[in-house]
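Suppose a colleague, Dr. K., hands you the sequence of a protein chain of 118 amino acids and asks what its three-dimensional shape might be. Before reaching for any lab equipment, you can write down a predicted structure in token form. Begin with the sequence itself:
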Amino acid sequence: QVQLVESGGGLVQPGGSLRLSCTASGIVFSTYAMGWYRQTPGKQRELVAQVSNGGNSYYAAAVKGRFTISRDDANNTVYLQMNSLKPEDTAVYYCNAARFFLARGNYWGQGTQVTVSS
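The predicted structure, expressed as tokens, is then:
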């Protein structure tokens, strides 16, 4: 029914950039806050960035100024532009759709691996 499909992950050198994409189906995309979370082994899943259906954005302190979240409602897609990447950014990144801004849930993608290493 509901699918969130991420793409764009991979291996990048420190200081490099990646652009993650998440395309949703099975939901009225324009009514959801869309976000990106990340998770590493032994740690809780962490909210990285979120954008409301009205365009308000939140960024975790660790990524503020380096990452940019955006959405394209016409194509049911949310992006995460990741610049100035650091090894600490290495994680599995998950796309998330939530009914309310700054809320966790309700739907998750399968995740895409981002590895920052020289």
